[in-house]
Every structure is written in structure tokens, then in C-alpha cells.
């Protein structure tokens, strides 16, 4: 395959480039300020002419333009970027009318397993208090993480109700039963840790995933690009291609 990578100079995009090349894929590394061997993101349309897919780990505000370019070029669009707003999501839906679109908050297979385990834990312990903590490097813009939002949605689905998401705690307040605490830490070079704690009378269940390298995200994203190649236009989840 020939994979175009938006965000190729970034923490994660650079790992996608490395993973793709390790799998003997040709890579179009895109940058706003291209070095030797990289392509100018401003010429995205031309770059996609010969590409088989676009993989995107950039910023949410770039998603609408990237989605439109993928659709115009007729190439599948794999989105790792998180913090997507309604405009970005609408752009993904529009592009999915023409090409396969797969957006995932976390391309680590272990996080997909964590989502399943969290649903099972909450279904088994619906009366237990749930608290979520996520930790990422000090360069991460969005909070809570996209993965945390996916985990919170999974907890709501398993509980059968939309819990009140309480971001941090301060002051003099008792915890409500229909509440989920959300705690965010930004420090150092942490690649990504997510913990869901379920606590009841006299016992605690802690479910945790920790990424040791961004290569785990890159591997999942390249898997997704490979497996979207023969799919019909539409929106896909990562679980659709696992
Ligand atoms: N779904 C998943 O599994 C994962 C998702 N992510 C998400 O991926 C995104 C990127 O994270 P990370 O790799 O740490 O970010 P970085 O900041 O390291 O890289 C982002 C890259 O995007 C490019 N960029 C920055 N601003 C713009 C812009 N306005 N338009 C186009 N391109 C731009 C830059 O490249 P240049 O300057 O060369 O153009 C930069 O290198 C985040 O949203 C993060 O949450 C991260 C890891 C895993
Ligand atoms: O910004 C990151 O680094 C990551 N972001 C994703 C998220 O917001 O969930 C996935 C992963 O945790 C790394």
C-alpha cells in the first residue's frame, strides 16, 4: 500500500511512518513545513492522488479539510486525532458517504480489550462507584483524553444511565451515587495510562491499561488502513477491523 500520513513529524505520526515502512508500505509523509523526503501538507490533494489511504494524527481543527481531501481523492480515511468537535464529526460523516472512514480514540488493541472488560465489570457491579483516572505526557492538549471519553461512554452504556461526569473534586461535597469522577494528570513523557476503579462495600476492582510505546497505536492504525482498503464507504469502528 501507499499510505499518506498527516502528522508524520509528530509523536504518533512518526511511529505510524516507521510501522508502515517496517511493513514495506510506501509512505507519503506530510508536514506543514516539509523536510527532505516529506510532502507539503498544503498539497494534500496532489499527495493523495497516488495514495491508498490517509492516516491522520494531527489536530482536530484540521479534520474537516483532511476528511474532504480523502473523500475527493476516493481514499479511506483513518483518524487517530482526538478532541473532535461537532464540525469535525460532521465532516467525517460527510466523507463516509464517499469513502470508508474509521476514527478511533485509541488504536491499542489492549484498550479495546479494556473497554470490553470495563463493560463486563460495570454490568456485574452496577451499584459500585466508578472513578476514572487518565495520565498522559505534558504535551497533550485535550482533556480528558479521547480514550477516557470512550471509557466513560462504555460505563454509561453498562449502567444503563448517563452518569454525571465530575471533573476533579474540591470543596465540601458528598459524592452522589449517579456520579463518575474523572481525574486527569499531565506529566513527563507518559505515553497513555487509563484506570477505571469500581468500588463497593469493602472491595475495589481496578482495571488499567498502560501504553509503553506509541508504536502500539501506530500498529493499530496501520492495521486499520490495511483492512479498510476493500471496504465500502461508511463509518467504521476499530472493532470492525480487529
Ligand atoms: N487514536 C489513538 O490511538 C491516538 C491518538 N492520538 C491523538 O493524535 C493527535 C496527535 O497527537 P501527537 O502525535 O502527540 O501530536 P504531535 O503534536 O506530536 O503531532 C501532531 C502533528 O500534527 C501536525 N500539526 C500540528 N498542527 C497542525 C495543523 N493546524 N494542521 C495540520 N497539521 C498540524 C504537526 O506536524 P507539522 O508541524 O510537521 O505539520 C505535528 O507534528 C492528538 O489528538 C492525540 O490525542 C495520539 C496517540 C494515539
Ligand atoms: O495524546 C496522546 O498521546 C494520546 N491520545 C489518545 C487519547 O486522547 O485517548 C490515545 C492515547 O491515550 C494517547
Gist?
Helix 1 links the parallel strand 1 and strand 2. The protein is 33% helix and 26% strand. With 242 residues, the chain is α/β, with parallel strands linked by helices.
Characterization of this structure:
The structure is a single chain. By secondary structure, this protein is of the alpha/beta class. It is built from seven helices and twelve strands. It has helices at 13-22, 44-49, 63-73, 86-95, 109-124, 146-159, 215-228; strands spanning 2-6, 26-31, 39-40, 53-56, 77-79, 100-103, 129-136, 164-167, 179-186, 193-200, 203-210, 234-236. The strands form two sheets. The protein has a seven-stranded parallel beta sheet, sandwiched between helices. It has a five-stranded mixed beta sheet with strand order 8-9-7-10-11, covered by helices on one side. The longest helix has 16 residues, at 109-124. The chain binds NADPH dihydro-nicotinamide-adenine-dinucleotide phosphate and ligand LZUJQKHR. Residues 7, 9-13, 31-33, 41, 57-59, 61-62, 80-83, 104-107, 142, 146, 217 line the site of NADPH dihydro-nicotinamide-adenine-dinucleotide phosphate (NDP).
Topology:
Blueprint: E1 2-6, H1 13-22, E2 26-31, E3 39-40, H2 44-49, E4 53-56, H3 63-73, E5 77-79, H4 86-95, E6 100-103, H5 109-124, E7 129-136, H6 146-159, E8 164-167, E9 179-186, E10 193-200, E11 203-210, H7 215-228, E12 234-236
Parallel strand pairs: 1-2, 1-4, 2-3, 4-5, 5-6, 6-12, 7-9, 8-9
Antiparallel strand pairs: 7-10, 10-11
The structure holds NADPH dihydro-nicotinamide-adenine-dinucleotide phosphate and the ligand O=C(O)C1=N[C@H](C(=O)O)C[C@H](O)C1.
Amino acid at each position: 500500500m501507499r499510505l499518506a500520513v498527516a502528522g508524520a513529524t509528530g509523536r504518533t505520526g512518526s511511529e505510524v511512518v516507521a510501522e508502515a515502512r517496517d511493513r514495506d508500505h510506501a509512505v507519503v509523509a506530510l508536514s506543514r513545513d516539509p523536510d527532505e523526503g516529506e510532502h507539503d501538507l498544503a498539497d494534500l490533494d496532489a499527495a493523495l492522488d497516488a495514495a491508498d489511504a490517509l492516516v491522520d494524527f494531527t489536530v482536530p481543527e484540521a479534520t474537516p479539510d483532511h476528511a474532504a481531501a480523502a473523500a475527493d481523492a476516493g481514499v479511506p480515511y483513518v483518524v487517530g486525532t482526538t478532541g473532535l468537535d461537532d464540525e469535525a464529526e460532521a465532516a467525517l460523516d460527510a466523507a463516509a458517504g464517499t469513502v470508508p472512514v474509521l476514527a478511533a480514540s485509541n488504536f491499542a488493541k489492549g484498550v479495546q480489550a479494556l473497554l470490553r472488560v470495563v463493560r463486563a465489570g460495570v454490568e456485574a457491579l452496577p451499584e459500585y462507584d466508578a472513578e476514572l483516572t487518565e495520565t498522559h505526557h505534558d504535551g497533550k492538549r485535550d482533556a480528558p483524553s479521547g480514550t477516557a471519553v470512550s471509557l466513560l461512554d462504555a460505563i454509561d452504556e453498562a449502567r444503563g444511565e448517563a452518569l454525571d461526569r465530575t471533573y476533579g473534586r474540591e470543596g465540601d461535597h458528598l459524592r452522589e451515587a449517579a456520579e463518575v469522577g474523572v481525574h486527569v494528570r499531565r506529566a513527563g513523557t507518559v505515553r497513555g495510562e487509563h484506570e477505571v476503579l469500581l468500588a463497593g462495600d469493602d472491595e475495589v476492582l481496578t482495571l488499567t491499561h498502560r501504553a509503553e510505546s506509541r508504536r502500539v497505536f501506530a500498529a493499530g492504525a496501520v492495521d486499520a488502513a490495511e483492512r479498510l482498503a476493500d471496504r465500502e464507504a461508511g463509518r467504521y469502528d476499530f472493532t470492525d477491523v480487529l
